[in-house]
Amino acid sequence: MDVAFKRPEALTDKVTHYCPGCTHGIIHRLVGEALDSLGVQEKTIGVASVGCSVFSYEYFNCDMQQAAHGRAPAVATGIKRVHPDAVVFTYQGDGDLASIGAAEIVHAAMRGEKITVVFVNNAIYGMTGGQMAPTTLVDQVTTTSPRGRDVENYGKPLRVSEMLATIDGVDYLSRVSVHDPKHIIQAGRAIKKAFQSQLDGNGLSLVEVLSTCPTNWGLSPKESLKWLADNMGPYYPLGEYRVDGEVVKG
Amino acid sequence: MGELILMKGNEAIAEAAIRAGCRFFAGYPITPQNEVPEYISKRMPEVGGVFVQAESEVAAINMVYGAAGAGARAMTSSSSPGISLKQEGISYMAGADLPAVIINVVRAGPGLGGIQAAQSDYFQATKGGGHGDYRLIVLAPGSVNELANMVMDAFDIADRWRNPVMVLADAVLGQMMEPVDFPEEIVDPGALPKKPWATAGMKGRGHQNVVNSLYLHPEECEASNLDRMARYKKATEDETRWEEVQLDDADIVLVAYGTSSRVCRNALDQARDEGLKVGMIRPITLWPYPQEPFDRVAGDVKAFIAVEMSTGQMVEDVKIAVNGRAPVHFHGRTGGVLPKVSDVVKVIRTAAEGSDTE
Lengths: 250, 358
Description:
The complex is a heterodimer. Chain A is an alpha/beta fold. Chain A contains nine helices and eight strands. Chain A has a single domain, classed as Thiamin diphosphate (ThDP)-binding fold, Pyr/PP domains (Rossmann fold, 3-Layer(aba) Sandwich), CATH 3.40.50.970. In chain A, a hairpin with a 2-residue loop joins strand 7 and strand 8. The longest helix of chain A is centred in the last third of the chain and has 20 residues, at about 180-200. Chain A is globular. The relative contact order of chain A is 0.15. Chain B is α/β, with parallel strands linked by helices. Chain B contains twelve helices and 16 strands. Chain B has helices at about 10-20, 35-45, 55-70, 80-95, 120-125, 145-160, 170-175, 220-240, 260-275, 290-295, 315-320, 340-350, and strands at about 5-10, 25, 50-55, 75-80, 100-110, 115, 135-140, 165-170, 175-180, 210, 240-245, 250-255, 280-285, 285, 305-310, 330. In chain B, strands 2, 3, 4, 5, 6, 7, 8 and 14 form an eight-stranded mixed sheet that branches. The interface between A and B is large, with 35 and 40 residues.
């Protein structure tokens, strides 16, 4: 009997700790499928960041390093420069990448480090219990913006892809979403393209994935998917921002 | 003995690292250590190694974390304020059992302090610096030649104990020129023992390697810390180093490391000329701290005098080592000022008379 659907080789069989309805599981799978389809699992070294994906080294079936908060692009730089033929990726949330690690991602991009960054943006700090992130939407209620994010004190949310699209060291850059099957398929294609860009050796590749956090958003899994599409979608436009090192949007 | 080369301390550090098989360096500009990255930026491509000027001290140490975890001999260098920023990465490397070499060409502090030589990072280097239950193995050179040879040893020590090693120099050692006698052997990084724990891709291994310092259960974190402490105990037995100067008949024992030990050497000679029986213990490893020479002489001497370029940091370890068996005096200058030979001689005279010098 032919196997029609199975766990990617690049994922372990461990049960994840993610909350019900969280889209990390889907995104892990997309990364695993990309590594499988490119046949690079055995030469891949991933970097886990700090946040909900902190334990991703338990779920990705490849060599992994755990990085300090925000430092994954620096750690990945060290790895990739030592093993230039390896496939090196970071898996980072928005608190990690857009806040404490803003310097590291900008400078890895500037240097054109030949790494792939999977940037999971759910507009909140998940692991620590739902605090405001640089990506939290205006008026969005979090545990540290109980009256909603106010522009007077915190400005408007940081659009990471638009910012990084201005940096010439970035070869491939795309923002995708995983709120429905169509977008999940598009997200999978973008992630594979990002890894292919790394294999081609032309610079940094990054996919920003709009993701949910039902627990900290205080919504059901189903409501979360809709909230993502209705609220994050308009502020964070989907699409490819850089392809083959050229700006195509933003 | 090989050919003697006249070298600036910072350049000797850089050349020694390359001769020791270091093939990854990440750093950030800060005075008084700039010749280290400058020299390496020129030299590293000649041996097929990597030099990265990082965007920050924080990024530099985390690049070293990645490179060390990937199996390379890796190093970063900085000076005091920059070393403060590196503490995050140092703690993570200790937690993940990663060997690497960190050079601190110490300048005065706190804050921006000044660019002149100081020894006021002793606490930071030997008592933790970063968060958590770990130690750094800390080496303290007293000359440019010793500094160069020590940097080479530091890579072996780091690999042996899978722990970061710090070489604690200072602005005097980094900036002055002295003859260097490098070992004949130049390390071929390809010939070094393999690191089966390193992340290099699973190919041929069949299972993943994970470089990590996170534990969900406190018992696992405790077990990891206790394993590290067991290694530290063995490292204490194997790696502790010190130099004794005219200790056999000494009534007064100076205790000093690095640049201040050179001042003390002159003070010792002058005091000996005056007929005072002075000796010196020069700790070469600041952690582990050399307990043995103190145990041997503490019962027979009149007093110990710790001399430092700080307001008194190592003196606390001298007191622990002496453990009440003799008075411990202190003389220090701070802020980048060097102790004077004549002042140290005065302190020796006072201690010899049995008065309190403090």
